[in-house]
Design brief:
Length: 105
């Protein structure tokens, strides 16, 4: 399955809505996600990492990354939002892991 940028955004939004957690990404967050996703290739599952924040609101920032990479596709002050994005990306890529060949371009 191949995703055009708008299809990718729509798929992520649909998966987030299907989780029922109320996580809705802003247009800016979706644009960042769509821009960074192709740069984070690999087959490892997506994960959430907590990073210390030295300025701004809160002491932690939660980033969605793949494998050992430090390049993130999404970051948030709220661990629940980052976890929802992680789950959506892993679900989006599940057909590829099963041999269905999901590719985003």
């Amino acid at each position: 399955m191949t995703f055009a940028p708008d299809d990718f955004r729509r798929s992520v939004q649909d998966l987030l809505a299907g989780q029922g957690g109320g996580v809705v990404l802003t247009e800016r967050e979706l644009a960042h996600l769509a821009e960074r996703y192709p740069l984070c290739g690999g087959k490892s599952p997506w994960d959430v990492r907590a990073y210390a924040r030295f300025t701004g609101r809160g002491a932690r920032e939660y980033r969605v990354v793949r494998g050992t990479s430090v390049l993130n596709v999404y970051r948030s002050d709220e661990p629940e939002s980052a976890a929802a994005v992680r789950t959506a990306l892993n679900a989006l890529e599940a057909p590829a892991a099963a041999g269905g060949g999901t590719v985003w371009k």
